[in-house]
Predict the structure.
Amino acid sequence: AQSVTQPDIHITVSEGASLELRCNYSYGATPYLFWYVQSPGQGLQLLLKYFSGDTLVQGIKGFEAEFKRSQSSFNLRKPSVHWSDAAEYFCAVGASRNFGNEKLTFGTGTRLTIIP
Amino acid sequence: NAGVTQTPKFQVLKTGQSMTLQCAQDMNHNSMYWYRQDPGMGLRLIYYSASEGTTDKGEVPNGYNVSRLNKREFSLRLESAAPSQTSVYFCASSELAGGPGDTQYFGPGTRLTVL
């Protein structure tokens, strides 16, 4: 079965500083990987996704993530955070091609706080 | 194009009461999903519907039932609510049933409290 670990429950960074959110996955085949963001009181919005090809993926709002198969990681990065980036971030690993028991599995989330 | 909509946004129930959470999508997606979100546990899949006319259990289906009314609508029913079902419920939809390109789009959520 697939699983996702986000080791950081809460991260605080200063506005303008760089950001890296960690995500480690466990999956038997080539994974489909996603990062979602959830602003307070809102639903989840897709930031970016990886299916195949270039291991550095660009997303919306200036975010990027790098797939590293050797480390089973898919860390999210942003070079300079803005106050509006304060939110909760979820990493997820996607279903296999056969829609069976393996589907989208989410990590427990990392809450990001931005200080002025 | 509203995407995924959910009603109601908030609900308070007493133990033993029943209710139905409604979800609709206007993106002509084949697959729809119900998740619950609890603090420190991320999102967990309750039920999903890979296509119109089919439904299957997810990770935490006990105490819930679903109906895929048509391609647009997927409802979640609590027959006898329990305090353990206090949670935020999210509906999602995707174009394909698994596989590359299967991005899920989420509704705004329903915050349910069971007293």
Chain A touches chain B at residues 4, 9, 32, 34, 36, 42-46, 49, 51-52, 90, 94-99, 103-104, 106-109 (CB under 8 Å). Residues 5 and 19 of chain A are 18 Å apart (CA to CA). DSSP finds no helices and twelve strands in chain A. The mean pLDDT of chain A is 89.
